[in-house]
């Protein structure tokens, strides 16, 4: 059953295991950096991503933050260096702007905002990150290991979240012409990515137990007339850990990952000290 494009089942134990069907009998593993229980400053999370991208051998880190922060452990040998990664975390409260966005969708004067505004390298408009929101940063080589198609990648990320929410008892879907995952008229998950030479950065932010009051400062993702929602409004006792488990399982299924390697806390440098609230927009 392993040849000719048939599915073959393989079981490989590398750290924590997720068992899925793998095309052609090949076993694909990825590195899972699970810091979903931590509040991580935005620049620290960005530095970790840049270090993981650099491990693919495609780019050097774009800022000095990655070198100072330590970041993702590249491990021993090229095998780990070329393996896909998934970084999970929560962020300290922050607003981020995409490459083409302006401050027009920030409703509160910058000097009165209670947290940072950071210009970053992803696509899309302004969004909020904060406690109770599960953030996932996939570092994938789409050309080498997946499908070199941005539309396919965005729709696959949406499907990961739709499947995870289904496991938690929530029927979610898409809205034509808009990226993200919705339940009715409320957006539960924002997606904004960067793909350079088919290596991905940034990712998705799923509101699990998020204080939606912090969204009052912005027009989320620049989409007027649409509300944001949080999973805990629909599943009262849900925790970030529940969403994490469902998301990791569906990520493995959709991206054909047979096993996760969890390198442990030593693979990521300690989080940087909190950054003082901004009085203007800062570069990412």
Automatic annotation (TrEMBL):
UniProt record similarity statement: Belongs to the LipB family.
GO molecular function, one term: lipoyl(octanoyl) transferase activity
Name of the protein in its database record: lipoyl(octanoyl) transferase
Annotated Pfam families: LplA-B_cat (PF21948)
Chain segments annotated as coiled-coil in the UniProt record: none
Annotated EC: 2.3.1.181
UniProt GO BP: protein lipoylation
NCBIfam families (alphabetical): lipB, PRK14345.1
Keyword terms: Acyltransferase, Transferase
Residue intervals of the BPL/LPL catalytic domain: 80-259
PANTHER family xrefs: LIPOYLTRANSFERASE 2, MITOCHONDRIAL-RELATED (PTHR10993:SF7), OCTANOYLTRANSFERASE (PTHR10993)
Biased composition (Basic and acidic residues): 61-71
Region feature (Disordered): 54-75
Pathway: Protein modification; protein lipoylation via endogenous pathway; protein N(6)-(lipoyl)lysine from octanoyl-[acyl-carrier-protein]: step 1/2
């Amino acid at each position: 059953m392993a040849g000719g494009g048939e599915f073959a089942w393989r079981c490989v134990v590398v750290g924590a295991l997720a068992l899925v069907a793998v095309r052609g009998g090949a076993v694909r593993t990825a590195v899972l950096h699970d810091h979903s229980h931590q509040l991580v400053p935005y620049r620290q999370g960005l530095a970790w991503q840049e270090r993981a991208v650099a491990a693919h051998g495609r780019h050097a880190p774009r800022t000095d933050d990655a070198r100072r922060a330590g970041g993702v452990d590249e491990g021993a040998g090229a095998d780990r260096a070329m393996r896909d990664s998934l970084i999970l975390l929560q962020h300290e409260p922050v607003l981020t702007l995409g490459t083409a966005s302006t401050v027009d969708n920030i409703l509160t004067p910058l000097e009165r905002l209670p947290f940072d505004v950071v210009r970053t390298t992803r696509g899309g408009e302004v969004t909020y990150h904060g406690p109770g929101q599960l953030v996932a940063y996939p570092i994938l080589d789409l050309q080498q290991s997946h499908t070199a198609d941005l539309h396919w990648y965005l729709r696959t990320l949406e499907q990961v979240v739709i499947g995870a929410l289904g496991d938690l008892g929530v029927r979610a879907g898409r809205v034509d012409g808009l990226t993200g995952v919705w339940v009715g008229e409320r957006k539960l998950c924002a997606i904004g990515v960067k793909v350079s030479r088919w290596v991905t950065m940034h990712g998705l932010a799923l509101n699990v137990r998020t204080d939606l009051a912090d969204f009052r400062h912005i027009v989320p993702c620049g989409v007027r007339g649409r509300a944001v929602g949080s999973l805990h409004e629909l599943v009262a006792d849900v925790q970030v850990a529940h969403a994490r488990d469902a998301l990791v399982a569906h990520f493995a299924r959709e991206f054909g990952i047979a096993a996760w390697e969890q390198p442990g806390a030593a693979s990521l440098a300690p989080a940087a000290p909190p950054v003082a609230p901004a009085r203007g927009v800062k570069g990412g």
